[in-house]
Write a structure and sequence with these properties.
Layout lengths: L1 E2 L8 E6 H14 L6 E5 L1 H5 L3 H10 L4 E4 L2 H9 L5 E4 L8 H6 L3 E4 L2 H10 L5 E8 L7 E2 L3 H12 L4 E7 L10 H23 L6 E3 L3 H6 L7 E4 L22 E6 L2 E5 L4 E2 L5 E2 L4 E6 L16 E4 L2 E4 L9 E4 L11 E8 L2 E3 L1 H7 L4 H6 L7 E5 L2 E6 L3
Parallel strand pairs: 2-22, 3-4, 3-11, 4-5, 5-6, 6-7, 7-8, 7-9, 9-10
Antiparallel strand pairs: 1-23, 2-12, 12-20, 13-16, 14-15, 16-19, 17-18, 17-20, 20-21, 22-23
Helix pairs in contact: 6-7, 7-8
The structure holds pyridoxal-5'-phosphate (PLP).
Pyridoxal-5'-phosphate binds next to α9 and β11.
């Protein structure tokens, strides 16, 4: 629900800094040789939790004209939200939806000749725009390129389908986020298979407007000017594709997760907090309760590990994180009161906690942290310090 008053429930909220999205987009697109590679914005999964329509609008204003999503519903949300650019669905869509794809001018990935025929059969009047997916080593979806003859035949079969307009071909890297020698060799092998298959198809008379293989990691450390698009996801949101990859200067995380202290109390020696009594005070302490929990996407696996920022200082989780609340140790932090601002990730004073930091605490990646922020958490859009929009899903 769009909230025009810019008021929202001050419980737990996610700030989405649109000026950082603009800056990240500018920096990343400038890394590409733009005479050959265009930046495509991957805004699947509600723009990795940031709000797809809001990000699309913000990025279109900066010149973005190609967006990638994971399914038809996500694509239609963008079109209904006013997206003028190209929209590519990266995942499978059943043939029966071909008329909706065509009517809404959405590009569908084609996985097999059979899939192409299904889409072509249902297309009524208008052809469905398509990109062919090649599996060069990700092992997920697409025509297998390990056998180049078979792959070329299948591409020709797809090209021959009536009701389908093949405009592009692409592949996805499995280990582009690594500098490791074996992984670099693997990425190079994927490129060889990919561009080899494209050349072969060209020799057979097939031509493509878009030929693309780069994701964020590929763009940052395996850039290849033969890729006509750079499909930018995680780096656009200001997070690292992997621990090894440093982001270019100036790129900042777009999302910050905030809350307020709801309750504060002394915790006497011997007293415990939360379910399972996993934490017992071994001295006189002060504990603050924060109204955020795993139902908001702040994982229970962070119990006793995560630090939040309060008054520019770090406060550690104590006891188990509950569904809607958690408790932190504020014994050494002055001036904490009910209503004091809490930063779950983001910056406060000189301290920073990033989604990548939280991810590292329980063996996942920053992607999962931002994607996992629940719809219960209002998204507050901010540009140059001013709230421009609030999205509350209640
Ligand atoms: C998600 C996805 C991307 C973006 O990956 P990042 O690592 O977030 O840059 C690119 N291409 C495909 C096919 C994807 O599924």
């Amino acid at each position: 629900m769009k909230n025009n008053s810019n008021n929202f429930l001050k419980r737990t909220w996610a700030e989405i800094h649109l000026d950082r999205a603009e800056r990240n987009y500018e920096i990343l697109s400038s890394l590409c040789d733009n005479s050959c590679t265009r930046a495509a914005c991957v805004i699947k999964a509600n723009a990795y939790g940031h709000g797809d329509v809001q990000l699309m609008r913000c990025l279109e204003e900066k010149g973005a004209d190609f967006f990638c999503v994971s399914n038809l519903d996500e694509a239609l949300r963008l079109r209904k939200g006013g997206c003028k650019g190209d929209i590519l669905i990266l995942g499978w869509t059943a043939g029966e939806y071909a008329p909706i794809l065509a009517e809404n001018n959405i590009i569908q990935v084609v996985l097999t000749p059979e899939h192409a025929r299904e889409l072509g059969k249902s297309a009524s009047g208008k052809a469905v725009r398509a990109h062919i997916k090649l599996d060069t080593g990700m092992g997920r979806i697409g025509l297998l390129t390990a056998d180049p003859d078979r792959c070329a035949e299948e591409m020709a079969e797809i090209f021959a389908v009536n009701g389908l307009n093949v405009e592009g071909v692409f592949t996805h890297f499995a280990v582009a986020d690594s500098f490791d020698e074996d992984n670099t060799a693997y990425t190079n092998m994927q490129k060889e298979r990919f561009f080899g298959a494209v050349e072969r198809a060209a020799a057979m008379g097939m031509s493509f407007k878009e030929v693309h293989c780069l994701n964020s990691a590929g763009t940052l450390i395996h850039y290849d000017r033969r890729s006509t698009l750079a499909r930018l996801g995680i780096a656009l949101y200001g997070l690292k594709p992997s621990e090894e990859i440093a982001l270019p200067e100036g790129i900042k995380p777009i999302m910050e997760l905030k809350s307020e202290v709801s309750y504060i109390k002394p915790l006497h020696k011997g007293e415990s907090v939360s379910y399972g009594r996993k934490f017992t005070a071994d001295r006189e302490m002060i504990a603050a309760t924060i109204p955020v929990g795993y139902a908001d996407g702040y994982s229970r696996l962070l119990s006793g590990k995560a630090e939040v920022l309060i008054n520019g200082r770090r406060a550690k989780s104590i006891g188990r994180i509950c569904m809607d609340q958690m408790i932190v140790d504020v014994t050494d932090i002055p001036d904490v009161k009910e209503g004091t601002l809490v930063t779950l990730f983001g910056c406060d004073g000189g301290e920073t906690v990033t989604p990548d930091d939280l991810a590292a605490l329980y063996g996942t990646i920053g992607y999962e942290i931002v994607c996992g922020i629940n719809r219960r958490v209002p998204r507050v859009y901010i540009k140059n310090g001013e709230i421009t929009e609030v999205d509350e899903f209640v």
